[in-house]
C-alpha cells in the first residue's frame, strides 16, 4: 500500500482485495489488514508529500517549462490548496490514478502536515475498507477461487469467466465511488458558495 500511494503505479486492488479474501477464510484479521493498508497508504503518500515539499518548488521553477508547467501554475496550485486542500486530499484518495499523485500538489502547496495526514488517513481508510470488504464478499460468493486468481483479475492477460466477473464488479464499485465523490464535491462547492454570500 505504501508503494501504491507513491508515484509507482501498483494498484491497491492487487493487495487489499486478496487480503479481504484471506480474512474471510480466517487466514488474516480483516481489521488488522485495513489498519495496515491505511497506514501503508499514508507512508507512501508522505514520501510524495515530503519530496514535493522540499524540492517541488525548486524543480518547477527550474525545469517546469519542459513539462508545460510555469511558476504561475505553482502559485495557482498553492492558492487552491490553501483554500480547498482538505477536501481535495480526501476525495483524491478515493479516485483511481488521482490517488497516486494527490500528495504532490499538497506538498508543493506546503499543506499543513497534520491536515494532510488526517485527510489522507480518512480517504485511505474508506478506500482500503471498501477493497477489503469486496475481497471478503468474493470469498463468500465465488468460493475457493484462490488469491492469485483474484490478483490477476486486475491484470491485462487472459481471464476466465470468474476473473471477468470480478473485474466487472470492481468497475461497478469504482463508478459508485466516482458518483459519490462528484456528489460530495458539488455539496462542497454549494457550501462554499453559500458561505461566501453570507
Automatic annotation (TrEMBL):
Compartments it resides in: Cell membrane
Keywords: Cell membrane, Membrane, Transmembrane, Transmembrane helix
Chief location category: membrane
Membrane topology classification: Multi-pass membrane protein
Transmembrane segments: 30-52, 116-138, 172-191
Keyword Oxidoreductase appears in the UniProt entry: no
PANTHER family tied to this protein: ALKALINE PHOSPHATASE LIKE PROTEIN, UNDECAPRENYL PHOSPHATE TRANSPORTER A
Protein name as annotated: DedA family protein
Source organism: Helicobacter didelphidarum
Lineage: Bacteria, Pseudomonadati, Campylobacterota, Epsilonproteobacteria, Campylobacterales
